[in-house]
Amino acid sequence: MVIHESCPGYPAEPFASLVASYPGQDAYAPSDFRVEWGPVFHRGRLDGSARVLLLGQDPAAHEAIARRILVGEAGQRAQGLLHKIGIASGYVMVNVYLYSVYGQAAGNRHVADEGITEYRNRWLDALLIDSGVTAVVAFGQLAERAFGLWAAARPEAAARLHLAAVKHPTYAEGAARGSGLPLAVTTARQLADWNAHLDGLRGAVVPDGDLDATPYGQTWSQTDLVEIPERDLPAGVPAWWRSLESWAVRAGADPEEKRATIRVAVPKGARPWPQP
Fold it and tell me: What is the pairing mode between strands 248-250 and 262-264?
């Protein structure tokens, strides 16, 4: 019999109270956030064993279904970064925003909103004050700014943490679309940025797993993307939710339908029935 692992959820304080008192449309305007898909809180360890905090931006289509953050391609790249610093289990991840941003400009407008910041700082207090976390990875400018807002209010706690402000896991794709540069160029730029932070992170954390000392190259290699561990997701989810294949996309004939619809499909390689 296979013994499966799963995320226990939020049974203990202060996290039980945090998920019971999350902000909704009072703080997150539906014009700028996809509040209709509900909040997505975290991924990783809430039992005190985390040594690294990864601060992301907002949940996407895969995260809306899985109810955990950073489980799509961005999550697999983040998992690979953890592997390169020797962290197999001792991590926790939270986002700047509980809800998916509707329009990139909205993310920049609201990062310092009082209602959003107050709740986010409660999570950061719970994870970073009197904890075992020694390093914070801020994915992108929004995450760096959000951490800075918390650090300004908690200077003593922030002073003991190593901060690695790195490019967002999907920076390369976004930068290529926005600038017109070839994807190969923006990918190389992202991976060079991540390489520049590896030594600092390795010096700031105590490894709890095998360390992949191979630096990033000019493009993503097969070993740079790591499957999401089963223990990070709710009990009973199908294995393909953790796979390296994309299985959730927003779909619709117009912007309203696309906002309201996520198309989920079992990847071909995960279909257990006979294939033609």
Answer: antiparallel
CATH number of 31-213: 3.40.470.10
For the segment 207-243, what is each residue's pLDDT rounded down to a tens digit?
999 999 999 999 999 899 999 999 999 999 999 999 8
> pLDDT (tens digit, 9 = 90+) per residue, 138-166?
999 999 999 999 999 999 999 999 999 99
**∠212-201-84 over CA atoms, to 5°?**
15
pTM confidence score: 0.96
Domains of the chain, by residue range, sit at 31-213, 240-276
What is d(CA 175, CA 186) in angstroms, rounded to the nearest whole number?
6
Number of Cα atoms under 13 Å in the Cβ half of residue 185 = 8
Give the angle subtended at the CA of 84 by the CAs of 80 and 86, to the nearest 5°: 110
In 117-225, the DSSP E strands lie at 135-139, 162-166
For 234, phi then psi, to 5°, come to -60, 160
φ and ψ at residue 264, rounded to 5 degrees:
-110, 130
Q: Give the Cα separation of 124 and 104 in Å (integer).
A: 24
Query: What's the pLDDT score for residue 113?
Result: 96
Give the burial class of 119: count Cβ atoms within 10 A of its Cβ; 0-12 exposed, 13-18 middle, 19 or more buried.
Answer: middle
Among 147, 126, 129, residue whose Cα is nearest residue 16: 126
Q: Taking residues 57-67, what's their average pLDDT?
A: 96
Q: How many other C-beta atoms lie within 10 A of the C-beta of residue 65?
A: 19
CA pseudo-torsion sign 115, 118, 123, 128: positive
| Range 266-275 average pLDDT | 92
Phi, psi of 135 (to 5 degrees): -140, 145
CB 107 within 8 A of CB 113: no
